Structures are given as structure tokens and as C-alpha cells.
Structure to design on (166 residues):
């Protein structure tokens, strides 16, 4: 009896796996820095810090698009146009000895690009967010507001909410 029950469950499991849904194709995401931001990174912010933001943008967008299935199998080409830190970066602190890490200000980021669906339809995307209230910046880290802008962009792109913005 037990062997018959096990054989039945095994055959049901095999039959179920034959009808399993294939996972959606992933979306290819490419992120680059604008020439202006590259110059700011080299001269002022530090290339490593800005490259880390670009990597976070790519990772967050991929995660959200894979989670929601928006643009499955498509491509997204993004440019990190601008980023502004809340606190001095490591390079800024090294370049200006009198600067303090206790200094703070409002930060944020601007992102532009295009989403290309599987059928080739190109949709421009644009997003920018900068904190406007200095009181929110006192307890932040160096790139808190830029990270928040990246997170919000990825979340909204994953739900198809930034396509119409121009």
C-alpha cells in the first residue's frame, strides 16, 4: 500500500513538473555615467564612490524588473546624469583638510535612459529626485539621498510608473 502511494505521488510530481511555467526572461540593464558626472567624479567626488552608485542603480533596477516581470526579455539603458552627496566624500575630505564629515546638505540624483521592449518599442525614461528639506539631511550618510532616488526610480520603473515622465 505504501509503495502504491509513493508511486502515485512520484507520478503526480513528474506530471506537475512537465506543466510547470518557464521563468520569465530577465531584462538586460546597462548603466553608464554622463560626461558631466564623470568629470565631477574625477575632480571632486571620487570615481569609486560614483561608480558604486552606478552599480547600485544597475542592481536595484535588475532586482525590481525581475521581481515584477516588467520588460521581461527587454533591455534598459540608463545614464546616471547627476548625483549629489549629503556629506563630503572621502576624496573631498582628503582634498580639503578643513572640511568636516559633520558638514551636511541636501543630496539626490537624476537618471535618464530608455526602456526597449522585446518587440523593439523604445520608451524614454527620466527621473530626478533631490531632497528639499535640509532638516532631513542631518542624520544621513554620504550618499543617502542619491541612494533614495535610485531606490525610488527602480521601484517605479518596476511598476511602469516612470515611462510617461519627460
Amino acid at each position: 500500500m505504501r509503495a502504491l502511494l509513493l508511486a502515485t505521488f512520484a507520478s503526480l510530481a513528474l506530471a506537475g513538473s512537465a506543466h510547470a511555467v518557464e521563468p520569465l526572461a530577465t531584462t538586460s540593464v546597462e548603466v553608464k555615467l554622463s560626461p558631466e558626472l564623470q568629470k565631477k567624479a574625477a575632480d571632486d567626488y571620487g570615481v569609486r564612490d560614483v561608480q558604486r552608485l552606478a552599480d547600485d542603480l544597475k542592481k536595484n533596477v535588475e532586482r525590481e524588473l525581475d521581481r515584477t516581470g516588467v520588460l521581461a526579455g527587454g533591455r534598459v539603458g540608463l545614464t546616471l546624469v547627476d548625483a549629489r552627496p549629503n556629506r563630503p566624500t572621502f576624496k573631498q575630505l582628503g582634498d580639503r583638510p578643513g572640511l568636516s564629515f559633520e558638514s551636511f546638505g541636501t543630496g539626490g540624483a537624476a537618471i535618464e535612459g530608455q526602456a526597449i521592449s522585446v518587440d523593439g518599442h523604445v520608451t524614454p525614461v527620466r527621473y530626478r529626485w533631490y531632497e528639499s528639506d535640509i532638516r532631513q539631511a542631518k542624520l544621513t550618510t554620504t550618499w543617502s539621498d542619491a541612494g533614495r532616488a535610485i531606490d525610488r526610480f527602480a521601484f517605479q520603473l518596476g511598476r511602469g510608473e516612470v515611462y510617461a515622465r519627460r
Q: What stands out?
A: The longest helix spans residues 47-68.
